[in-house]
Design goal:
The protein has about 270 residues and is α/β, with parallel strands linked by helices. The protein is built from 11 helices and 9 strands. The strands form 2 sheets. A 6-stranded mixed sheet has the order 1-2-3-4-6-9, with helices on both faces. A 3-stranded mixed sheet has the order 5-7-8. Helix 1 links the parallel strand 2 and strand 3. Helix 1 packs parallel to helix 3 and helix 3 crosses helix 10. The protein is globular, with a radius of gyration of 18 Å. The mean pLDDT is about 90.
């Protein structure tokens, strides 16, 4: 097992690298990884920071939620389920609102919550082997807490396709719809990221912070939700996890079979 679910470092230029470090499960997130992201942001917020680069160790960037962890959380109380959803929301929200530019480097799989994470970053560079999917509906879950950010990044029309079908799509399609900005050969991913960082470092720090803030203020969606909306998203996310439909979806994943869905009641 990996020593720590999240690693971070900071170089002399003020460039931080935050690395998701659960390669044995394709960097699927659980409570420890979420807390690791929050702790890294807390630590970095006390440093002379200019840019944050987000990466994933191993073959894949981030494979969404660890469904074993989801299965462990779901039978707990409603309050405990809300705590888990609130922490997940907070990790994405804090990435989104960092006052410095963020750059995500994506290789391999980027599924479920991973798509929300990159939608919360300012610049996304993907390797040509990257594969994406907003997977929650396949397992009887909802992507409630990342839907606003995805709508901001790729538009409601694209969310209404990809979050409803749960289909997988490649790097070029991700670029076409605006989820990623640039696609490069896998061998060039680090170099392409370094070029973006150099471009950002050439710009005035205070001007970058103000420009990012103004862009987000002008956003129609994103994570710019009020307290009531925030609570509703967390509640929807956590309540759905505790349903019979989620139980069946998670069982279908564990048993490697199609979900046996009851007819919808309209």
């Amino acid at each position: 097992m990996s020593a720590s679910p999240v690693l971070w470092s900071l170089d002399a230029r003020g460039v931080a690298t935050v690395t998701l470090n659960r390669p044995e499960v394709n960097n699927a997130y659980d409570g420890a990884l979420i807390q690791g992201v929050l702790a890294a942001i807390d630590e970095l917020s006390t440093k002379p920071l200019r840019v944050v680069v987000l990466k994933g160790n191993g073959r894949h960037f981030q494979a969404g939620a660890d469904l074993k962890w989801i299965n462990a959380v779901r039978p707990q109380s409603p309050d405990e389920n809300e705590v888990a959803s609130r922490a997940t929301f907070e990790a994405v929200q804090r990435l989104n609102t960092l006052p410095v530019p963020t750059v995500a480097l994506v290789q391999g799989g980027c599924f479920g919550g991973g798509t929300g994470v990159i939608a919360a970053c300012d610049v996304v560079v993907a390797a040509d082997n990257a594969l994406f999917s907003i997977t929650e509906v396949r397992w009887g879950l909802t992507a409630a807490i990342i839907i606003p950010q995805l709508c901001d990044a790729i538009g409601v029309r694209q969310v209404r396709r990809y979050a409803l079908t749960g289909e997988r799509f490649g790097a070029e399609d991700a670029r076409r719809i605006g989820l990623v900005h640039e696609v490069v050969p896998l061998a060039d991913l680090e170099g392409a990221g370094a070029k973006v960082v150099e471009q950002l470092l050439a710009n005035a720090p205070a001007a970058l912070t103000e420009t990012k803030r103004l862009a987000m203020e002008s956003s129609f969606g994103g994570m710019a939700v009020d307290d009531d909306a925030y609570r509703r998203l967390v509640r929807l996310h956590s309540d759905k996890r505790r349903t019979a439909e989620a139980a069946e979806g998670l069982a279908s994943f564990a048993e490697k079979r199609a979900g046996r869905w009851a007819a919808a009641k309209v």
